[in-house]
Amino acid sequence: MKKVLPVFLSFILILSVFTSIGVPDAEAATAKTLYVQSSTGLKSSAKSSSSTLLTLSAGRALSIDTGTLKNGYYKTKTSGKTGWVLKSKVSQSAHSLSKQKIYKTTSIKSKVLKTLNAKQNVTIIGKSGERYKVKSGSTVGWVVSSKFKIGTYTLTFEEQVVKLVNEKRAAAGLKALKSSSSLNNVAEKKSKDMRDKGYFSHTSPTYGNLPSMLKKFSISYKAAGENIAAGQTTPASVVSSWMKSPGHKANILSKKYTHIGVGYVSGGNYRHYWTQIFTAQ
């Protein structure tokens, strides 16, 4: 009989506390220019054990007919050699390493069409020297290639929780919370502590209550709150659970908070542990 793990929720607001327990691969043939995500080998056949014809560096453009996909490899020709490259090593997408601008032309003195946040994905549709021609939504323009990493950026569980929280706040007409690396660190330690010490509570046997823990990590604040949960398997499910509880929802939609930290760990009795810490600074 399959064991069903329960889920638990709990949140805390300093000065008032609420608690509750929460073989050939089929692909249509299309000619594309794809880019190498990280250094990899051009193989003599569609097998990992085959010899390497040459090393392909990150960012290298390859002309590929996606209809040649076999055993997870694409066939391609580059530098006069025909060989096979892993599908997982090439992409038409890239993401910004920091806040970047999309320009109208290859010149950074040209009109700025759009500003991208860090880790924002774009589709590469061309290249000229040290510039990529990219598409972001309906915007098409040029970016500095060295400021981008090939491949789609996938948000971590913690980043997904922050995104979902800010979507809920936006729907309520509230300002977005800023993600804080120091609060992320504390939230992760709290989740790890609950998992490793086998408890589910706002009061940690290691760090004490939330004010004590924030003090221990030298975090100053005007107001603070905490939501915890255990058992939920995805960011969407845990945020949904919190939003269905008046106390947790109040923390998420509080007008006074300005920053958020999220910590997620797997393992332990409930397999998944979540902590949100909110502060007003």
Automatic annotation (TrEMBL):
Database matches in Pfam families: CAP
* Keywords, comma-separated and alphabetical: Signal
Give the signal peptide as a residue range, or say none if absent: 1-28
SCP domain: residues covered: 163-278
Q: Which CDD domains match?
A: CAP_bacterial
Identify the SUPFAM superfamilies for this entry.
PR-1-like
Q: Which InterPro entries match?
A: CAP_dom (IPR014044), CAP_domain_YkwD-like (IPR014258), CAP_sf (IPR035940)
Q: Which PANTHER family match?
A: SCP DOMAIN-CONTAINING PROTEIN
What name does UniProt use for this protein?
SCP domain-containing protein
Q: Which organism is it from?
A: Pradoshia eiseniae
